[in-house]
Amino acid sequence: MSPFWKIFVAIFCYISGIVGLGLAVANASVKPPATTHAFVYGGLGLVFLIAGIVLSRRPRY
């Protein structure tokens, strides 16, 4: 994968992760709480954040 696309996908993953965690907090704080949606958004947010971290690491040789 070229460096341009790797950075582009990493930024997309970071933004998606932050939005997912924000939606998880928003769904968990409503009355009554939408816990199923909160868990799904939180899980996807964490997956995207981990993917962004993995993509933005320097290669080890």
Task: Give the helices and strands, then pairings.
Blueprint: H1 3-29, H2 35-56
Helix pairs in contact: 1-2
Keywords: Membrane, Transmembrane, Transmembrane helix
Transmembrane segments: 7-26, 38-56
Characterization of this structure:
The chain crosses the membrane at residues 7-26, 38-56. Keywords: Membrane, Transmembrane, Transmembrane helix. The protein is mainly alpha-helical and 61 residues long. The protein has one domain (1-55). Helices cover 80% and strands 0% of the residues. It is built from 2 helices and no strands. It is elongated and about 50 Å long. It starts with a helix and ends in a 5-residue tail after the last helix. The model has no long low-confidence stretch (mean pLDDT 91).
Radius of gyration: 14 Å
The residue ranges in which pLDDT falls below 50 over 5 or more consecutive positions are none
Major beta-sheet overview: none
Shape: elongated
**What is the N-to-C order of secondary-structure elements (H for helix, E for strand)?**
HH
- Estimate the mean pLDDT confidence: 91
How is this structure best summarized?
The protein is about 80% helix and about 0% strand. By secondary structure, the protein is mainly α.
What are its keywords?
elongated, 0% strand, 2 helices, 61 residues
